[in-house]
Structures are given as C-alpha cells and as structure tokens.
Amino acid sequence: MIIVLKAGATDREIRLIEEKIKSHGLSAHISKGTERTIIGAIGDERHVDPGVFEGLEYVEKVLRILKPYKLVSRDFRKEDTILTIRGQQIGGGTVALIAGPCSVEGREMMVGIAGKVAAAGASFLRGGAFKPRTSPYAFQGLGEEGLRYLAEAREATGLPVATELMDPRDIELVARYADVIQIGARNMQNFRLLTEVGKLGKPVILKRGLSATIVEWLMSAEYIASEGNQQIILCERGIRTYEQATRNTFDVSAIPVVKDLSHLPVIADPSHAAGKVSLVEPLSAAAIAAGADGLMIEVHQQPETALSDGPQSLKTDDFRGVVSRLAKIANAVGKTLGRT
Ligand code: PEP
Ligand code: MN
Q1: What integer is the mean pLDDT of 133-154?
Q2: Which atom belonging to ligand 1 lies closest to the Cα atom of 309?
C-alpha cells in the first residue's frame, strides 16, 4: 500500500503514519520527493483497511500496489533515482562508463588499464577478484590480492571501483575495498546474498540473471530494497535464448521496459551480452539510444592473453575511439557519457 501525503505534510505527521503502519504489523518505507512524501506500507496488507489512512487530513490518497515488487516500482517513486558515488553520477543526464578487465590479473595490469580507461573518460573501474567461472578448473580470481590492486588503481586514478561479490561470507572483505558491489547474473536469485547486500549501505549493481524475466529481476532488486538499501543499479547483460551467434541475446527492450516499471537506474553490459568484441560498440550505441544510464565494458591491454573473457574485451588502445564515438550518441539523446 502506498500512502501519498499532501504537499507540506510535517515530520510529525509522517511519524504518526509510520506508527500507524507499524501497529498493523507492516513496515514503513519513506520516500521524500521534491514535491511530496510517499510512504510505502510493506507486508501483508490484506487485512488493513485503507480507510484508516484515507481519513487523515494530511493524506492525499492511498493506493494498493498490485505489482509484486513495491519499493523499486515507479508507483513508489515517480522521479528517477540518481546515484552519486565518489562524485560520479549514475542516472539523470549522465551515461556512466564502467570499464576495466573481466578479472584482476595483477598489479601492473590493473593499474595500467585503470590509467588508460580513466584517460579515455571512464567514470568507474571494474575488475573481478572473485570470478564465477563455469569450470572449477578455470581461473577463479585473485581474491583479496585482487581487491588490493583495485584499491591501488582507485588511488592512482580517483575512479570508484565496482567488483563482484559471490558469497555472503566475503561481504565484509569485499565491502572494505569496493565502492559498488556487483551481484553477477548467476547470483541474481541468491536470496541470502541479496538480503546481505540489502543490509549494507553501499550501492549494488544487480545483473539480470541468465534466464530471468524482468519481473524476477525486479523482485531480486526488491529483496535488496526491502532490507533498507535503495542504492541499486540494474544491469542488462543479455539473456539465454536459442540464438548461438552471440554469447547471449542482448535484450535492448528491457531498458525502456524497466525504466518504465522502476525508478532505478538501468545500465547495459554489451560485453557479456555479445561475447564478441566487434559487437560491443553497436550494442553500446543501441543501449544509449534506448535510454541506458550507463555502460559496463570489459577492457584489456592484451585480450588474447586474458585469463577470462578475452574474446569480448576491447583493447585499451581501441577504447578511447569507441568512447568518443559513443559520446556523440549520448549527446544526441541529451546526455553526457562518462566522467562527471
Ligand atoms: C562479469 O561482469 O565479469 C560477469 C561475470 O558478468 P555476468 O555476471 O553478467 O556473467
Ligand atoms: Mn567477464
């Protein structure tokens, strides 16, 4: 249930509603917008009569939300959520540019790529220290050592760092180094992991699961939001279909669909969608044109020697040219690409 207050409702009135919601066994989530305050009453609301709120003079209206996700829905918050992380924006007029290698492979490698992508205009660094590999014999990531190199790369460039968390047991460790926690496609429905990052006061990139519907993806975001963390960035990274020509099928329609259903920023990862470096630029262009709030792109000095995802990684030397061409697409839709 969503309770929309009249403009000018006081803090005391907000508190009174909060208490009333709690007395019905529901939890209250308050969203103060530019014009009015909206309060979400979350929980089993079937036995709660909307009249108990409608009768209050400072309440404008009460809506029952029929969608299974609530806090992340547009009904709960009309305005787009814009996140600012160490001065770098995601959402609004900025297309964030998150770039870096699939895996952190070493200190020189990470700091070297970071310098190059920063010079080309990236706004965030990426790099996996814990890697979800299909084969247990494939490179699994450097773990804490990799996190330390990411921190050194941040130190050298000033760029905030996004890195994947795979296991709730590593949450304190990863949170100590990361500015943004990435939940990978394979863990989109690891509900314990979602609950734990929901308790963390850090932004989370939630990738779409390999075979997840949009509603399932938003329900996973709701897990995080319902624990109190609304700093969520949704990432479309391609879904599993019958098509074999690409690693996954990039669902460009998911971008405007999700932006319509949810107030959260939506970014695209063309690298994992395509699986092929030649497709990264056209899919990025399509994502920006479709309204994406950011791109996550894999970059490597020597993709042919990469320990993971080489075939889809742009060469650091080619990255700058791609960014300058994509910046024109961003400008054409009234946005700027990369560092703010
Ligand atoms: C990654 O970002 O390197 C990754 C493993 O992505 P995904 O979870 O989308 O497969
Ligand atoms: Mn990868």
Answers
A1: 98
A2: 3
Share of the chain above pLDDT 70, in %: 100
pLDDT tens digits, residue range 281-330? 999 999 999 999 999 999 999 999 999 999 999 999 999 999 999 999 99
Nearest CA to ligand 1 atom 3: 102
Predicted confidence band at 110 (pLDDT cuts at 50, 70, 90)? very high
**CA-proximal residue: ligand 1, atom 10 (nearest):** 185
Ligand 1 nearest atom to the CA of residue 272, by list position: 9
Q: Is 25 left (phi over 0), alpha (psi -120 to 50) or beta?
A: left
Compute the Cα dihedral for 119, 122, 128, 134 and give only its sign.
negative
Q: What is the average pLDDT score of the chain?
A: 96
* Cα 51 to ligand 2 centroid, rounded to whole Å: 51
CB 56 within 8 A of CB 17: yes
Quote the ligand 1 centre to 233 CA distance (angstroms). 14
In the block, tokens 């929309």 appear at 4
Which three-class secondary structure state does DSSP give residue 148?
Answer: helix
Domains of the chain: 2-63 (3.30.70.1140), 83-337 (3.20.20.70)
pLDDT band at 116 (very low <50, low <70, confident <90, very high): very high
The pTM of the full predicted model, rounded to 2 decimals, is 0.93
Q: 91: CA distance to ligand 1 center in Å?
A: 21
What is the DSSP secondary-structure string of 199-249?
TSSS-EEEEPPTT--HHHHHHHHHHHHHTT---EEEEE--B--S--SSSSB
Residues with CB under 6 A from ligand 1: 102, 128, 132, 184-186, 207, 237, 269, 272
Residue entry with tokens 């809506």 = 63
What pLDDT is stored for residue 33 in this prediction?
82
User: Buried b vs exposed e over 317-326: b needs ≥16 C-beta within 10 Å?
Assistant: eebeebbeeb
In sequence order, what are the residues at sequence separation of 6 or more whose Cβ sits closer than 8 angstroms to the Cβ of residue 199? 227, 228, 229
